[in-house]
Amino acid sequence: MAVDLCRSFGEIRAVREVTLSVNRGEIYGFLGPNGAGKSTIVRMLTTLLRPTSGRALVAGFDVATQASEVRRRIGVALQDAAIDPLMTGNELLQLQATLHGIGRADARRRGVELLERVGLSDAAHRRVQTYSGGMRRRLDLAMSLLHQPDVLFLDEPTTGLDPSSRQNLWEEVRRLNNEGTTVFLTTQYLEEADELAHRVGIIDGGIIVREGTPADLKVAVGSPTLRIDVNPNQFVSAQSILSGFGEPRPARQGRLAIGLDDGASRLADVVRSLDEVGVGVVHMQLDAPSLDDVFADATGRRLEGHSEDSGDSQ
Description:
Blueprint: E1 2-9, E2 12-20, E3 27-31, H1 38-45, E4 53-58, E5 61-62, H2 67-73, E6 74-77, H3 89-99, H4 104-117, H5 133-145, E7 151-155, H6 163-178, E8 182-187, H7 190-196, E9 199-204, E10 207-212, H8 214-221, E11 225-230, H9 235-242, E12 256-259, H10 267-276, E13 281-287, H11 291-299
Parallel strand pairs: 3-8, 3-9, 6-7, 7-8
Antiparallel strand pairs: 1-2, 1-4, 4-5, 9-10, 11-12, 11-13
Helix pairs in contact: 3-4, 4-5, 8-11
C-alpha cells in the first residue's frame, strides 16, 4: 500500500502523490512508458530509494522505518540487476542464500529445486557470462525466490527476450502466483499486462492515470477503434467524413483513427460515405478496445513502442 508517495530528484518530480493498494495473492501490473516513474516506485517499495514524502507499506511494514523487515519478505528481480558473469549459476544462488542467512543444506536443496524450476539445471555449473539474456533473467528470478518471499517485485522482466523465453517466464509467474506469491509487475508491454495482471495501474508522468482490471478498463473506453489509411491528398476529406462517426483517437502519422460509434454495424456506412466523396481506402481495420486504447484515452497518445499493426489480430 502506498499513500501520497512522492520522489523528487532536485527540481524533477519523478513520482507525484501516488496512492495504490495491492491485494494479497494478486498480480498487479504497473504499465507505462519509459520514464513514467515505474522503476522509481519499485525502488521505493523495495527500500532501495527513500521516498521524498508520503508513506508505503509492503507486507505490512513501512519501507522507510522498517526497511529490514520489508527486505526479509520480498524478492526483487530488477531490470538492471548486476549478476557477476564470472560466477556460475549455482555459486550465485549459494551466495544469495548466505546473504539471507539460509543454512548450507537448505541452500543446496533450494538451489537445485529452483534451477530445475526455471530450466537451468543443465547450466548450473556454467559461468553466467555464457548465459543468454533469457537464461540470465531466469537465474535472476530463481535468486529472488530463494528465501521464499511473500511479495515478488518484477521490474520489466521480459524486456529484450525472444517470444519463447517471454512465454516461459509468464508461465513461471502464473505458477508462483497460484502458489500464493503476490506479484508486483512493471512492464511497458501491453500484452504482458493483459495476460498476467488481475489489476492494472497505468502511470504517466509520475501520476497514476487509470486503475482497474484489464477487462473493466477496456470496457470503459467504449467503442472499438477504427483505423483507416487513405491517399495523402484525400486525408482532409476523409478526416471530415470520419468525424461524423465517432471521436478522433490518437494514431500514427498519416493514419486516421476514431472510436467508431455502434461498432462494426457502422462499417458499411463509413465505406459508403467515403466512397460518395471519392475517397479511396488503402487500409482499414477495426480493433476491440485494448490497454493501449485505455492509455491513449487517458493521456492523448499511444504507449511508446506500441505498433498499431500488432493489434490487427487482437
